[in-house]
Design brief:
The protein is α/β, with parallel strands linked by helices. It has helices spanning 2-16, 56-69, 77-81, 84-97, 112-123, 138-147, 159-168, 191-201, 223-227, 255-264, 266-269, 276-290, 292-311, 334-346, 376-392, and strands spanning 33-36, 39-43, 104-109, 129-133, 150-154, 174-179, 204-208, 234-239, 249-254, 318-319, 326-332, 349-350, 353-354, 364-369. The strands form three sheets. Strands 3-9-8-7-6-4-5 form a seven-stranded mixed sheet, with helices on both faces. Strands 10-11-14-13 form a four-stranded antiparallel sheet. The protein has a three-stranded mixed sheet with strand order 1-2-12. The two termini are 43 Å apart.
C-alpha cells in the first residue's frame, strides 16, 4: 500500500494549499439553467458562447447523422474511418475560412488538444525553434515539449523580445505559437503584429482560436476575420466544442500544410476517427454561425458583456479588461477564491474558481463566462451577487 499512501499524502498536500480539483455532475443539457448534482443552478461556467450546445437544429442534425452514418466510425481516418460527413465538414470549413487563408484546406481532429499537439509535433523537430507565448494553453505547451524543438517562451504580448529572438534564430524552421483569446484572462493576442514579425523572419504563425472561432468577426470566422488577416504563413486551429456547440477541432492552413499533417500528425493518424454524426451536426452548426441567427447571437453576447461590466462595482477584486465572453474576476489567494465560489454556489450560481497552476500564484479568480443564451436579468443577478459578496468579505 506504500504507493497508494504516497498519493494520499500528495492529495492531502493539495487540500492544504486549496488546490485540489473536484468535479460536479450535470444532469441536464448544457444551458444557463441546469440541474447539477440534483440542484437547480444558474451556470456561468461553460464555453457554449453562442448557446448552440442544445439548439434544436443541432440536436436534429445529430439524430439525422446517427441514422445516416451510425454511431461509430470503426477505424482511423487513414484506414476506414473517414466518412463522407468528415469530408463535407472539412470542405465546408475550408470554404468558410478561405477569405483569411490562402489555398485553404481543413483537417478535422477529435479534440483541440490533439489538434495542437498534432500541428506542433508534425512541423517542428530537434532542429526547429518554437517561440511560445507565456500564457498559452496547456495543449500548446505540451505539443511544443513533445516536438523536441528548442522552445523559447516569450512574456505575454512582448513583441520586442519576440522579435529579438526571431532575429537571432538560425533555425531552418521557426514557429510562433499563440492563443488568440487567452482562456483565463480573456484578452486578445496582438495577431497583426505577430503575423508581421513572422512574415519578416520567415516563421509560421500558429494560432489557437479555441475561444474566438464562432464568436469573433462579422461572420464568426474568428480572430483572423476580427483583425482582417490573410497570409500563407498562418496555421489556424479552431475548436468546435465551444461556440460551435458540438465537439472536436480543426486545423486550417495552406493545402500543402494540411497534406503534410496528413503524413505526420500522430494524434490524427493513430486514433479512431470521431463519430461521423458529430461532423454531420457541425455542418448545421456552421450554417447557424454563418447566418443571421449567428450574427444576432454574437451581438447579444457583446451586449451582455457590456452590461456585466457596467453592473459590477468592485473595490478589492478586479475584473480584467476583457472584450470577450470570458470575464475573469481576480480575487488573489486560493482559499478566498474557493470561498467565493462556494458562497455563489449556495446562492445558486455555478462559477468556477481557477487556481494555480492554471493561473499564476496569487491570481486565483472566478472565471465568469457569458453565453448568448443568458438573459439580461440573469447577468444582472450575478453582478449583484458578486458586488454583495465582495463587501461581505
Amino acid at each position: 500500500m506504500e504507493l497508494i499512501e504516497a498519493l494520499d499524502r500528495e492529495l492531502r498536500r493539495l487540500d492544504e494549499q486549496s488546490l485540489r480539483r473536484r468535479r460536479r455532475t450535470a444532469d441536464t443539457p448544457c444551458a444557463p439553467r441546469v440541474q447539477v448534482d440534483g440542484r437547480a443552478m444558474l451556470a456561468f461556467c461553460s464555453n457554449d458562447y453562442l448557446g448552440l450546445a442544445a439548439h434544436p437544429r443541432l440536436v436534429e442534425a445529430l439524430r439525422e447523422g446517427a441514422t445516416r452514418y451510425g454511431v461509430g466510425s470503426g477505424g482511423s481516418h487513414l484506414i476506414s474511418g473517414h466518412s463522407r460527413a468528415h469530408e463535407l465538414l472539412e470542405e465546408r470549413l475550408a470554404a468558410f475560412l478561405a477569405p483569411n487563408l490562402e489555398a485553404a484546406r481543413a483537417m478535422y481532429f477529435s479534440t483541440g488538444y490533439m489538434a495542437n499537439v498534432g500541428v506542433l509535433t508534425a512541423l517542428a523537430d530537434r532542429d526547429a525553434d518554437i517561440f511560445s507565448e507565456s500564457l498559452n494553453h496547456a495543449s500548446l505547451i505540451d505539443g511544443a515539449r513533445m516536438s523536441r524543438a528548442n522552445v523559447k517562451v516569450y512574456p505575454h504580448a512582448d513583441l520586442r523580445l519576440l522579435e529579438d529572438g526571431l532575429a537571432a534564430s538560425t533555425a531552418k524552421t521557426k514557429l510562433v505559437v499563440t492563443d488568440s483569446v487567452f482562456s483565463m484572462d480573456g484578452d486578445l493576442a496582438p495577431l497583426p503584429d505577430l503575423l508581421a514579425l513572422c512574415e519578416r523572419h520567415g516563421a509560421w504563425l500558429v494560432v489557437d482560436d479555441a475561444h474566438g472561432f464562432g464568436v469573433l468577426g462579422t461572420h464568426g470566422r474568428g480572430a483572423l476575420e476580427h483583425f482582417g488577416l490573410r497570409s500563407p504563413y498562418l496555421i489556424y486551429i479552431g475548436t468546435l466544442g465551444k461556440a460551435a456547440g458540438v465537439g472536436g477541432a480543426f486545423v486550417a492552413a495552406h493545402a500543402t500544410v494540411i497534406d503534410w499533417l496528413l503524413q505526420r500528425a500522430r494524434p490524427y493518424i493513430y486514433t479512431t476517427a470521431s463519430a461521423p454524426a458529430l461532423a454531420h451536426a457541425l455542418l448545421a452548426s456552421l450554417d447557424l454561425i454563418d447566418g443571421e441567427e449567428g450574427r444576432m447571437r454574437r451581438m447579444r453576447l457583446q451586449a451582455l458583456r457590456a452590461q456585466f461590466h457596467n453592473s459590477l462595482a468592485l473595490r478589492r477584486w478586479k475584473l480584467l479588461p476583457s472584450h470577450t465572453a470570458i470575464q475573469p474576476v481576480v480575487i488573489g489567494p486560493n482559499d478566498e477564491a474557493l470561498k467565493a465560489a462556494a458562497a455563489l454556489h449556495e446562492q445558486g450560481f455555478w462559477v468556477p474558481a481557477i487556481r494555480p497552476p492554471t493561473v499564476p500564484v496569487g491570481t486565483a479568480r472566478l472565471r465568469v463566462t457569458l453565453s448568448a443564451a443568458h438573459t439580461a436579468e440573469e447577468v444582472t443577478q450575478l453582478a449583484e451577487a458578486l458586488n454583495r459578496l465582495e463587501r461581505m468579505n
